[in-house]
């Protein structure tokens, strides 16, 4: 359960510093995780980004202060991180559906986003099909783009990248090149060579042994023990559902944790909307330290 405690410490850190400037590096450090893996885990478990959580919590507290005090609206705006009353009003209306002035005079309903407490589901009602695979290092070829986690650029940019490769024929090329043990086209998240912690590399690639084809790049995937999870159903819902199960149910009840090396999503060339679509998630593993099984 160590990772749950680490995630909760990061949330507690956010709450304790809501009125201060904080960086995603500071928050991830509390969870003892890389920025990318912390943000990915947070998003999977909460269905929101770290930035969204901070923004929602600040505007929730701002609404409470507007309703319960006579403090000036401009002072409240500055207190919760907004440089102008106009930017505060715009953000406030987006969350609550009313203006700060209307909230002051109790004209309308408010949306309250409460402090998060991480609770892990260990229902086990829906079985998860997976296998453990040991593999030596292997090579993938494909295209690489660098994304930033700032302002959720990655969440907007990655779907656009997939649209691009589907339209320009890169997807078909990768399927034709595939000659490795993993059958399909891969979405690969990997650490960037840049020193900035808000950046990561995203690859659309395929396993391939041979000379790198023109126009593509090569990524070496290190030797690892992998958990390979089956995913059944249409995209993107089926993939998102299994990711949630992995973090909510599988990791807490197993002696493994994420190894921090590239993780893979494996896609077939079948209809992505098909109820019978088969996909996979490959997660590199390492043994947890001082693991105690949940009884």
Going by CATH, the architecture of the largest domain would be Alpha-Beta Barrel
Oligomer: single chain
In terms of DSSP E residues, the strand content is 15-25%
Overall shape: elongated
Please name the CATH topology of the largest domain. Multidrug-efflux Transporter 1 Regulator Bmrr, Chain A
State the major sheet.
Answer: 9 strands, antiparallel
Total count of helical runs of at least 4 residues: 10
Distance between the termini: 12 Å
Provide mean pLDDT, rounded: 89
Radius of gyration: 22 Å
- Specify the helix fraction band: 25-40%
What is the CATH first-level class name of the largest domain?
Alpha Beta
Structural class designation: alpha+beta
| Name of the CATH homologous superfamily of the largest domain | Regulatory factor, effector binding domain
Contiguous uncertain segments of 5+ residues? none
Q: Please count the beta strands (DSSP E, at least 2 residues each).
A: 9
Count of the separate structural domains? 2
Sequence of secondary-structure elements:
HHHHHHHEEHHEEEEHEEE
Written account of the structure:
The chain has 295 residues and is α+β, with helices and mostly antiparallel strands. It has 2 domains: 2-104, Orthogonal Bundle (Arc Repressor Mutant, subunit A); 130-287, Regulatory factor, effector binding domain (Multidrug-efflux Transporter 1 Regulator Bmrr, Chain A, Alpha-Beta Barrel). It is 39% helix and 22% strand. It has 10 helices and 9 strands. It has helices spanning 2-16, 24-30, 35-46, 50-68, 73-79, 85-96, 100-104, 153-168, 170-177, 237-250; strands at 130-135, 138-148, 185-191, 199-207, 217-221, 224-232, 256-258, 263-267, 278-287. Strands 1, 2, 3, 4, 5, 6, 7, 8 and 9 form a 9-stranded antiparallel sheet that branches. α1 crosses α2 (24-30). The model has no long low-confidence stretch (mean pLDDT 89). This is AraC family transcriptional regulator. Residues 8-106 form the HTH araC/xylS-type domain. Residues 1-12 form the PH domain.
């Amino acid at each position: 359960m160590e990772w749950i405690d680490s995630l909760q410490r990061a949330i507690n850190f956010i709450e304790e510093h809501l009125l201060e400037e904080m960086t995603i590096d500071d928050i991830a450090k509390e969870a003892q995780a890389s920025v990318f893996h912390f943000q990915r885990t947070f998003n999977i478990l909460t269905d929101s980004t770290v930035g969204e959580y901070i923004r929602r919590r600040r505007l929730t507290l701002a609404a409470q202060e507007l309703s319960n005090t006579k403090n000036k609206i401009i002072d409240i705006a500055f207190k919760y991180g907004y440089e102008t009353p106009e930017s505060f009003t715009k953000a406030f209306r987006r969350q609550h559906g009313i203006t700060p002035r209307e909230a002051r005079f109790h004209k309308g309903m408010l949306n309250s986003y409460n402090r998060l407490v991480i609770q892990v589901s260990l229902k086990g009602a829906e079985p998860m099909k997976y296998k453990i695979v040991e593999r030596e290092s292997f090579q993938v070829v494909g295209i690489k783009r660098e994304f930033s986690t700032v302002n959720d650029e990655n969440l907007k940019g990655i779907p656009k990248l997939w649209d691009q490769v589907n339209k320009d024929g890169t997807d078909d090329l990768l399927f034709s090149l595939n000659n490795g043990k993993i059958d399909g086209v891969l979405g690969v998240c990997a650490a960037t060579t840049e020193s900035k912690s808000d950046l990561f590399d995203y690859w659309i690639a395929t396993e391939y042994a041979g000379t790198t084809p023109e126009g593509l790049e090569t990524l070496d995937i290190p030797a690892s023990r992998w958990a390979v999870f089956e995913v059944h159903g249409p995209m993107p819902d089926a993939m998102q559902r299994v990711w949630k199960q992995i973090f909510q149910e599988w990791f807490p009840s197993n002696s493994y944790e994420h190894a921090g090396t590239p993780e893979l999503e494996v896609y077939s060339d079948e209809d992505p909307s098909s109820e019978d679509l088969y996909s996979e998630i490959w997660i590199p593993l390492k043994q947890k330290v001082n693991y105690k099984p949940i009884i």
